[in-house]
Amino acid sequence: AFPSLAQAQASVANEVYQELGQPPVFLFCPTEYCSSLCSPGPGQSLYLLTLGQELLPGIGVIWTGPKVVSRELSPVLLEEVEGVLRRCPVIWDNLYANDYDCRRVFLGPYTGRAPGLMSRLRGLLLNPNCELQANFVPVHTLGSWFRSELGSCAHADAAGTEPAADQGDSQDPQEGSYSPQDALERALRDWVAEISRQASEPGG
């Protein structure tokens, strides 16, 4: 009934989206959801080009970055994807995911995500460790990064220009700069406090 997989997927997604009354959040995960799955690349992918043309504008498209688990994300890396999809992507961030290797747990700070990334995104989803308690540091440091991004956006709106990224240490993540090491130290302090609080509760 359809000349291509992309047209079939777009048709079904559009129909469901409209049947649900075009909700404000409706996400579509493409078959090619990272650069390494596109041949030769996102900008030359007929599949992604078709999705960009056929999907209704209100539908968000999920993207994981250069790879399924991407060490780095930057506005420059997302420009090509934004152009071909005709919308800012929703990042499905697998930085901490360990469902593919449950022998490892990732406890470091949220890192490798460049300043100014938020302005190129429609949203960001963090795929966590499978072990619930192991996600305290990832979620806490993601919050610090997010607050720093909000600070950057606020400064940019006020000045009309994108602020320069401060690579130095920052004690206040709301000032528009993000230090993974500072964020990690804050997260560890709060995690220890939370563990102590739970241990002091009756039956803890």
Describe this structure in words.
The structure is a single chain. Strand 1, helix 2 and strand 2 (60-63) form a beta-alpha-beta unit. The protein has one domain (5-100, 110-154, 178-195): Glycosidases (TIM Barrel, Alpha-Beta Barrel), CATH 3.20.20. It has a four-stranded parallel β-sheet, with no helix packed on it. The N and C termini lie far apart (60 Å). It is elongated, with a radius of gyration of 19 Å. Mean pLDDT is 88; it is low at 159-174. By secondary structure, the protein is of the alpha/beta class. Helix 1 (5-19) packs parallel to helix 2 and helix 4 crosses helix 5 (180-200). The chain is built from five helices and four strands; from the N terminus they run H-E-H-E-H-E-E-H-H. One of its GO terms (molecular function) is beta-N-acetylglucosaminidase activity. Residues 168-180 have a biased composition (Polar residues).
